[in-house]
C-alpha cells in the first residue's frame, strides 16, 4: 500500500503520544418545544494514538451526538451543560467557530454516514477534496502538489484517480464511500470518526471498506472512532468498545473482553439478540421494550425498565461507572449477576 506523506511544510507528527483525545463528563442537551432532550449524559472516554474505539448501541442512544460534539458540528439547538473535550490537551468546547475550524480535517475528520448525501452533487469530487486541502494545509500546496496528493489518496483507497474529475452520481456506492475516506485523510488527521461507514452497502463491499480502513489505520498510525449499531462490525475493527444506552456509556473496555464477558445487562442482551454463524447453537434472547424518552428519562439507572436484573435500588439510584476488571468498566449495580458467555458455553 502506498504511504501518503504529511502535507508539505508540516512537521513530522508523533503518533505515539498518549491520550490524543480525552472526553470528560460530557453532557449535552437539545432544547426543543417540550423541554430538554438529554442526548449525551456524563460521557467520558480517552482515545490514544493508533487506537480504535467503537461506539455501539441502538438508534437514538447518542452515538452520533457524541461524534458531532467532538467536531463541534452539533445542531443549533444543542447546549453543552458540562464537561470537556480535550484534543492534544486543548479543550475544544470554549473555542470559537473560527478557532474550531482550524482543527477540523487537519486534526480530526469524519467519514459521514450516507456517502451520497455527503457530496455536493453539482461539483466534481476532486474539487471538493481540493477545497479541504486548500483551507487546512499550510502553506497552501501548489496545484500540482494538491493534485498529486489527491491521486495518491485515491490510489490508497482503491479508486482510479481519473474519477477525481467525475461528479458524485458517476460513482458507485462503494466508490463514493472510498472517496469520502480519501477526503477524510486529505489533511493528515490524527483522528478519524467513521459514522456507520458501511451503511446501505452490500456485505462484500462492506467487508472491503472495513479492510481498507484497517489497513490505512495501521499504515498511517491514526486513531479511529467507529460508530455503529452493528455489533459484529465493531467486533471486527476495534480494540476497545463503548456500549451506549440512552445517552450514557454503560460499559467500556477491551473489545475481546466485553464480547467474552459482558458485565452490563444491556451489552449482554445485545450480544444474545444477534445470531452467530460460528460456535455452538444458542437460543436468542431478544431485547424487549423500547429505549426511554429522553425528554423525561427514567430515574436511577436508565436501563432499569428493560432490565431482567433490576431491583428497587436501580429505580432510585443511578449507578457509577466502576471498573470490574483491568480496563473494563460498567455502570450497573448488579453487574456480578450477568452471566458470561463462557459460563453459557458460547465463548
If you had to describe this structure to a student in words, what would you say it looks like?
It is a single chain. By secondary structure, the chain is an alpha/beta fold. The protein folds into 2 domains: 19-238, P-loop containing nucleotide triphosphate hydrolases (Rossmann fold); 242-337, no CATH class. It is built from 10 helices and 12 strands. The chain has helices at residues 63-70, 97-101, 125-136, 143-157, 173-185, 203-220, 231-237, 255-260, 265-272, 312-316, and strands spanning 21-32, 35-47, 52-56, 78-87, 90-91, 108-111, 191-195, 223-228, 240-245, 248-254, 321-325, 328-331. The strands form 2 sheets. Strands 6-7-8-3-9-10-12-11 form an 8-stranded mixed beta sheet, with helices on both faces. Strands 2-1-4-5 form a 4-stranded antiparallel beta sheet. Helix 6 links the parallel strand 7 and strand 8 (223-228). The protein is globular and about 65 Å long.
Counting structural domains, the number is 2
Mean pLDDT, to the nearest integer, reads 88
Strand percentage, roughly?
A: 15-25%
CATH architecture call of the largest domain = 3-Layer(aba) Sandwich
Q: What is the CATH fold-level name of the largest domain? A: Rossmann fold
As laid out across the biggest beta sheet, the strand order is 6-7-8-3-9-10-12-11
What sort of overall outline do the alpha carbons produce when their principal axes are compared? globular
Number of helices: 10
How would a textbook summarize the main sheet?
8 strands, mixed
Could you give me the name of the CATH homologous superfamily of the largest domain? P-loop containing nucleotide triphosphate hydrolases
SSE run: EEEHEEHEHHHEHEHEEHHHEE
Secondary structure: number of strands: 12
Radius of gyration: 21 Å
**Broad structural category:** alpha/beta
Amino acid at each position: 500500500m502506498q504511504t501518503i506523506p504529511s502535507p508539505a511544510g508540516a512537521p513530522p507528527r508523533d503518533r505515539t503520544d498518549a491520550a490524543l483525545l480525552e472526553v470528560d463528563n460530557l453532557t449535552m442537551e437539545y432544547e426543543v418545544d417540550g423541554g430538554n432532550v438529554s442526548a449525551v449524559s456524563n460521557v467520558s472516554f480517552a482515545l490514544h494514538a493508533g487506537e480504535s474505539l467503537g461506539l455501539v448501541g441502538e438508534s437514538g442512544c447518542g452515538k452520533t451526538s457524541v461524534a458531532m460534539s467532538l467536531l463541534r458540528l452539533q445542531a443549533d439547538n444543542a447546549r453543552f451543560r458540562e464537561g470537556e473535550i480535550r484534543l492534544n490537551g486543548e479543550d475544544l468546547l470554549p473555542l470559537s467557530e473560527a478557532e474550531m475550524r482550524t482543527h477540523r480535517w487537519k486534526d480530526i475528520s469524519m467519514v459521514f454516514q450516507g456517502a451520497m448525501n455527503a457530496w455536493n452533487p453539482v461539483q466534481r469530487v476532486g474539487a471538493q477534496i481540493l477545497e479541504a486541502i486548500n483551507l487546512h494545509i499550510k502553506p497552501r500546496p501548489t496545484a500540482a502538489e494538491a493534485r498529486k496528493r489527491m491521486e495518491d489518496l485515491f490510489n490508497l483507497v482503491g479508486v482510479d484517480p481519473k474519477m477525481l474529475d467525475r461528479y458524485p452520481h458517476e460513482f458507485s456506492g462503494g466508490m463514493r464511500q472510498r472517496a469520502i475516506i480519501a477526503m477524510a485523510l486529505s489533511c493528515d488527521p490524527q483522528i478519524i470518526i467513521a459514522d456507520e461507514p458501511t451503511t446501505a452497502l452490500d456485505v462484500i463491499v462492506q467487508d472491503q471498506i472495513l479492510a481498507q480502513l484497517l489497513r490505512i489505520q495501521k499504515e498511517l498510525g491514526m486513531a479511529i472512532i467507529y460508530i455503529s449499531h452493528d455489533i459484529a462490525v465493531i467486533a471486527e475493527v476495534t480494540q476497545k468498545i463503548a456500549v451506549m444506552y440512552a445517552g450514557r456509556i454503560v460499559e467500556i473496555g477491551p473489545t475481546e473482553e466485553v464480547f467474552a464477558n459482558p458485565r452490563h445487562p444491556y451489552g449482554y442482551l445485545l450480544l444474545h439478540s444477534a445470531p452467530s454463524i460460528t460456535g455452538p447453537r444458542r437460543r436468542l434472547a431478544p431485547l424487549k421494550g423500547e429505549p426511554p424518552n429522553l425528554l423525561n428519562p427514567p430515574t436511577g439507572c436508565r436501563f432499569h425498565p428493560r432490565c431482567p436484573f433490576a431491583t428497587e435500588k436501580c429505580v432510585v439510584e443511578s449507578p457509577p461507572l466502576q471498573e470490574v476488571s483491568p480496563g473494563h468498566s460498567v455502570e450497573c449495580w448488579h453487574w456480578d449477576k450477568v452471566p458470561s458467555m463462557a459460563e453459557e458455553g458460547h465463548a
